[in-house]
Amino acid sequence: MWKPRPEDSKPATTNPNPPTQSVAPLAATSTPAFTPPKETPRAPEPHRGDVGHIGKSVQIKGELTGSEDLYLDGEIEGTIDLRDHSLIIGPNGKIKASISARDLVVHGKIEGNITATGRVELRKSSTLIGDITTQRIVIEDGAFFKGAIDIKENSKQEARKPMVAAAAAGANMSSGSSSSATSYSAAPGTQGSFLDNK
Q: What is the pTM (predicted TM-score) of this model?
């Protein structure tokens, strides 16, 4: 398995502290003294359940729907609807479609709008021309993106937000301070800057 190195056959006279155990040359033993652990191949992305695969030679024109996660490396023109499942666009993927999925990871090229209920990841090799609507987004350095991003809030956070705002308003009223405070708001459905006075 391994060939002995020239350093193994030379006496260790230059080392002031020689090892206490003598190591037999590997060629003389019938079994290797050390075998490195074999690495198990890992999938690039964590998947759950069944994952469909569309190869790079496949071309589809029309509507693509499914009820399982999908790895797509071919060419699609039309619409893709995987609302409760994840979609991975491979490096050879060329998509001209509107996409609706739970999670989306893009390595290839997309021309169209994306709606994701979970997360969108644009990897460094990706190109996206279109608008994104999602709760979470990751754009790696080197990815090309031209369009708009609309970050939707989680329904649990929306339910808590009015109570937090009411508690903050109550705290300002009960503090007894007569100074006028400036309030900044980013309410759902509005777009603005935290620097704008509301």
A: 0.56
